[in-house]
Each structure stands twice: as C-alpha cells, then as structure tokens.
Amino acid sequence: QMRSKRRLTEGERNRYTIRCIVNREVEDLVYASAQAIQESRVQTVSDVRKQRYPLIRYSEGLRKSNRELRKFLYKHFYHHPVVAEVNRKACDMLEEMFHFLLKNPGKMGPKALHRAKEQGLERTVSDFLSGMTDRYLAQNYHAWIEK
Description:
Blueprint: H1 10-40, H2 45-49, H3 60-78, H4 81-103, H5 110-119, H6 121-130, H7 134-146
Helix pairs in contact: 4-6, 4-7, 5-6
C-alpha cells in the first residue's frame, strides 16, 4: 500500500496501478503453478510433457478475470474508432517504409545489407521494420519519406 502524505501525480498513480496489477498476475501465476506441479506429482520432463493441461497457469479466478478484461478491452478500446484509425495510419507508414527500404536498402546500414545478400532483401526489410519501436518508425518515416 502507498502511505505518502503528498498527492500523487496521475503518472505516479498509473505506474503504481500497473505495478500492482503486474505483481498480482505474477504472484497468482507462481502460486497456481506451484500448486498444479505439486498436485500433478511430476518427476521428470517426460511427466511434464504428458500432462493434459499446462502446469504453468493462472488460477481459475484470475483466468476468468483476465478473459473478462480482454473482452472489455477489445470491445471498448482495441476496436474503438480512434484507436483503429491510429492503427491504420501505422500500417500505412509500415507499408510505405517497406517499399522505401526496398528501393533504398542502404538506409538500413551495412549489417542489414550483408544480411540481405544472404537472406534476401524482402526478408531483411521485414525484420528491420519488425524491430523498430513506434517512435523509431515515426522518426525515420518523417526523416526519409516526408522530408
């Protein structure tokens, strides 16, 4: 629990809330998994592989809560028109960057160029893009394409 005399900023409250959620998820996973392992009486890796259900799992209560949360997030957040528009723009940027890098592979650097000779340009560009953070994609998009 938090026992601070000053009011927390919104960012501090958000970080604290996230930390509490992650802690709860991890604790539940550890305890539920330990219980499942103990109840299964596995002794070998082979015994683990023969299990009908995964031994590393959340408790039924947390699994149910997570399912409900996921349904809510998909309904009210992930498919929200504002979020969908941001995702569409990001997909458009990725597609433009893909075609740009096919025509300008030198922008990826010498290691990527060497890799492209071995694995193909399309594969190398795809991997290069998949390793980008959102911020790095936006920075390079603005620098290379929008100029």
